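2024-03-11 09:14:02 INFO worker-7 job=invfold-0412 stage=load source=structure_tokens
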């Protein structure tokens, strides 16, 4: 197995000469075998152990075993303890997902702070095929069918070639100490259901099921690379990145509406799942203003385009204004209309009314909360000013600033709503058409001009 371990590392370019590797060691058979393999081959390593405080004294015994191994071979040892149940409850996560999030974040901190190049985890071939079957049962695309990768960013999986039996045989040969997690036998967990109930049935059908499924995963990984390249090129040809959102050309999208797999892969980065595909297609084929909100993004139709924005910037703090008829989506605007600018037209002096040159703005526009670093050219001034300085000069309180919204066009501030427009968008002698927007006095807490 030692030679196979070295071969797998070399063939997959997992480790370069001079690399320092941080080993994630739980005390279980897989990670203890991995730790011994690295120690035998004289790599420069450190050991990181997480005590999740989930199994009372057993967790402490796991910790002590790993600590003793590191001490015996004089390997740098890093330890942390997590209140996993509390974290899971606070973040509405399962215990398994909470433990995963906690440990990977901590591993990266230890790696970065101590000069390690890589983090090695002890996933094996059986783990890989179990992941594939879990993904298949829940519904997945090509990425899910490809299973785990030998390397993902700075995380390497040098045991991915070995079956659970290979690891057990190696452990028995070298009499390696390890700790058995009793929860591994509990079939209330999905992975254990697959491991103890599904795999044995599949073995009756195909005794070499581990090898067969692993080869299948490898083929899907190859397919996934091909499809990912195609989808990336397609997305680049039909989309455009703006300051606050992404636009996709609908006329080009429509060519693929009958191929749900293509639509799924195109919109997967925006939180689209299999269950949302039909709703997404209805938005693409629907009227302007049709939208769908995923866990991460807001997807909205605007005439000949699909607009995609981060959900964290959507909700109450950001509003996408598609055209002059769409200002009503923001509760602080009472009306907006285009007006002809003639010699007799009088520009309103009321700060709650913005009169701007229609030809100087482009849609979609955005209404959002102000943020640090924002600047504009206050009406009547040819010098830019930070909004933060503007607020200080006008004695805005913290509450005042928290309730300020701005209107933005192509990344430029057009109007501090209910307060002051930007000099660059004002009505001039050459203006033919203006956009008249009125804000609601009672719905925005705005400081009057002093």
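2024-03-11 09:14:09 INFO worker-7 stage=emit residues=450
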């Amino acid at each position: 197995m030692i030679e196979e371990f070295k071969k797998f590392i070399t063939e997959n370019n997992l480790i370069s000469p001079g690399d320092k590797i941080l080993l994630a060691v739980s005390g279980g058979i897989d990670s203890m075998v991995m730790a011994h393999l690295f120690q035998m081959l004289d790599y420069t390593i450190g050991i990181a152990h997480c005590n999740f405080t989930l199994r009372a004294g057993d967790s402490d015994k796991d910790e002590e075993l790993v600590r003793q191994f590191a001490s015996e071979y004089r390997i740098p040892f890093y330890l942390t303890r997590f209140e996993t149940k509390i974290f899971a409850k606070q973040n509405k996560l399962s215990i398994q997902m909470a433990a995963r999030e906690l440990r990977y974040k901590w591993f990266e901190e230890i790696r970065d702070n101590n000069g390690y190049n890589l983090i090695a985890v002890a996933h094996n071939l059986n783990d890989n095929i179990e992941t594939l079957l879990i993904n298949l049962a829940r519904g997945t695309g090509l990425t899910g069918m490809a299973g785990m990768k030998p390397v993902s960013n700075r995380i390497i999986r040098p045991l991915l070639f070995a079956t659970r039996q290979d690891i057990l045989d190696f452990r028995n040969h070298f009499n390696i100490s390890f700790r058995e997690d009793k929860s591994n036998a509990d079939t209330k967990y999905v992975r254990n259901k697959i491991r103890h109930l599904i795999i044995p049935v599949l073995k009756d059908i195909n005794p070499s099921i581990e090898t067969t499924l692993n080869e299948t995963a490898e083929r899907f990984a190859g397919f996934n690379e091909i499809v990912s390249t195609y989808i990336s090129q397609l997305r680049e040809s039909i989309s455009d990145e703006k300051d606050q959102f992404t636009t996709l050309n609908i006329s080009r999208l429509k060519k693929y509406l009958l191929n749900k797999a293509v639509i799924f892969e195109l919109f997967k980065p925006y939180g689209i799942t299999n269950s949302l595909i039909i709703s997404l297609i209805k938005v693409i084929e629907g009227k302007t203003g049709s939208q769908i909100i995923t866990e991460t993004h807001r997807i909205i139709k605007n005439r000949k385009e699909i607009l995609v924005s981060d959900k964290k910037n959507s909700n109450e703090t950001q509003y996408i204004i598609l055209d002059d008829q769409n200002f009503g989506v923001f509760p602080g605007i009472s009306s907006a209309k285009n007006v002809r600018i003639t010699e007799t037209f009088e520009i309103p002096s009321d700060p709650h009314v913005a009169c701007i040159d229609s030809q100087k703005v482009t849609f979609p526009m955005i209404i959002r909360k102000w943020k640090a670093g924002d600047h504009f050219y206050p009406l009547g001034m040819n010098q830019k000013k930070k909004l933060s300085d503007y607020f200080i000069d006008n004695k805005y309180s913290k509450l005042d600033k928290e309730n300020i919204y701005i209107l933005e066009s192509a990344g430029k501030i057009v109007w501090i709503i209910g307060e002051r427009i930007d000099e660059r968008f004002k009505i001039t002698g050459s203006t033919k058409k203006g956009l008249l927007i009125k804000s609601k006095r009672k719905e925005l807490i705005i400081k009057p001009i002093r």
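2024-03-11 09:14:09 INFO worker-7 stage=report msg="The longest helix spans residues 209-238."
2024-03-11 09:14:10 INFO worker-7 job finished
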